[in-house]
Amino acid sequence: MQLFYLPDIAQATLSEAESLHCVKVLRHQTGDTLHVTDGAGHLYQAQILEAKAKACKLHNFQLVREEEPKGFHIHLAIAPTKNIERMEWFVEKTIELGIDQITFLKCQNSERKGINLERMEKKAVGAMKQSLHLRLPQLSEEIPFSTFLKQAEAEQKFIAYVDENHTKHLKNCLKENQRYLVLIGPEGDFTSEEIQYALASGFMPISLGNSRLRTETAGLAACMMCQWVNE
């Protein structure tokens, strides 16, 4: 099934990028039937009314399926890597796995200052469509670490950092059907000050295993464990 993204079904017109892909790449024509999601859990069938490469118009929408809300919520707050392609890979892969929310952190040891959120959102839409998910995860602008902690809410909050004295593995701390929030630091890791601030804010220190993982790999591992405990 080829999935198209139309956040406002009432608008009934695919974006220019989606229209170009539909008409020029896939060569759909007027009268063809498409599968469309609004990114909010709904799958529709619709027919092409006007097959235009810049504005493909649809009609005859029929709701095919409404995705049931999950009993859990995965939120990763992560410091973007210096190599932005690695962070784009992280966004794509965690969305394929079913992440619900990603927040980009600005930490003291962050090597990258700023991200192109619009580009990240395009990567997110592509990953959602490729994996046939019907919900588009929420991506948030980069936010200072201390500011984020003041507003961070979850039933289970964890911070992952390099420490040989860690005895608690994330997979052994997770409970089913919870709202999870995991902090993943930059390539230079969290500072001791940031770690103490997180612990004082109710975050539990955890390990992701014996290997020293790259930032994006650590984020992917955390996402997989949160999914696994709910399988």
Automatic annotation (TrEMBL):
Provide the family line: Belongs to the RNA methyltransferase RsmE family.
Transferase recorded as keyword: yes
Question: Entry's NCBIfam families?
Answer: PRK11713.6-1, RsmE family RNA methyltransferase
Q: Name one GO biological process term.
A: methylation
Q: Which PANTHER family match?
A: 16S RRNA (URACIL(1498)-N(3))-METHYLTRANSFERASE, RIBOSOMAL RNA SMALL SUBUNIT METHYLTRANSFERASE E
Catalytic activity, reaction form: uridine(1498) in 16S rRNA + S-adenosyl-L-methionine = N(3)-methyluridine(1498) in 16S rRNA + S-adenosyl-L-homocysteine + H(+)
Official protein name in the record: Ribosomal RNA small subunit methyltransferase E
The subcellular location is: Cytoplasm
